[in-house]
Amino acid sequence: MRPDAPAVTGDDPTHAVRTPDQTLPDDLLADRTLGDVAADIVVCRACPRLVAWREQVAREKVARYRDRTYWARPVPGYGDPLARIAIVGLAPAAHGGNRTGRVFTGDRSGDVLFAAMYRAGLANQPTSRSSDDGLAVRDAYVAAAVRCAPPLNRPLPSERDRCLPYLVRELRLLPELRVIVALGAFGWDGVLRTMDILGHRVRPRPRFGHGAVAGVGPYTLVGCFHPSQQNTFTGRLTPPMLDAVLATAREFAGLGPPRTAGSEESVAS
User: What is the CATH number of the domain that holds 105?
Assistant: First the structure.
């Protein structure tokens, strides 16, 4: 679950300014938990443009959420600490994760993703509307390459590079991880850059494609079109296509075919 911290809608000078580079050294990673990494993520203010945008969105809101209090902070990953599959997207949506405080929660991309995870036996329910909606995932961990909602859904390369050490830290704390599903070309590139930091450099660099599979160090990387409205509304990504990617991920993770969706007791961090 997201750390228990108050939501904000503007600049708060009392927040500690922390950046990934300050917490990356191995001696600080040795005994950390996913919760510790999440606590570092939610107070990060390393990218002024992203800080300004996420908090502007929280102040101005949109009509359908005018009565909601926005999270308006960076969004940590979410899932099973014994996950065999990690799913990595681009960044939180301005009125999705930036509002709810949980990755892929409260937006249409999340509706598509978690419905597919439910069908694949990786989630206990097919929707994710709020951080307290009872969602739990099993054998999977969901994160993003960039943790703040970016203007026009387009992070700058410098913002991506400042943020990737958080993904490095999360992946290092998933001892059973075998497969990484990258959502979109940005997620694919972010995962490969993360693997470079972890010492798993691959040359020539694998090219992104829907259904692409590449071995990267001890992991299998699987590509998937991002479940954005642009892709799902146009039919570029359909539910069967997403189901096939998650079936491939389960196979490479050694999980086998899913049981009846939602039938197993699920866990979440």
Answer: 3.40.470.10
Report the candidate in 157, 147, 160 with the shortest Cα–Cα distance to residue 75: 147
Q: Where are the beta strands (DSSP E) in 103-218?
A: 140-144, 179-183, 213-216
Supply the angle between the helices 184-197 and 157-172 in degrees, to the nearest 10: 60
Structural domains in the chain (count): 1
Q: What angle do CA 120, 124, 129 make, to 5 degrees?
A: 110
The answer to whether residue 260 sits within a structural domain is no
pLDDT, tens digit, for every residue of 212-269?
999 999 999 999 999 999 999 999 999 999 999 999 999 999 998 886 544 444 444 4
Q: How far apart are CA 146 and CA 139, in angstroms?
A: 22
Tell whether 73 is covered by a domain: yes
Find residue 85's DSSP bridge partners.
140, 179
Reported as a single tens digit per residue, the pLDDT across 32-50 is 799 999 999 999 999 999 9
Residue 267 falls inside a structural domain: no
Q: Taking Cα atoms as reference points, which of 215, 178, 200, 170 lies closest to residue 39?
A: 170
Does pTM top 0.70 for this prediction? yes
**Domain-located, residue 239:** yes
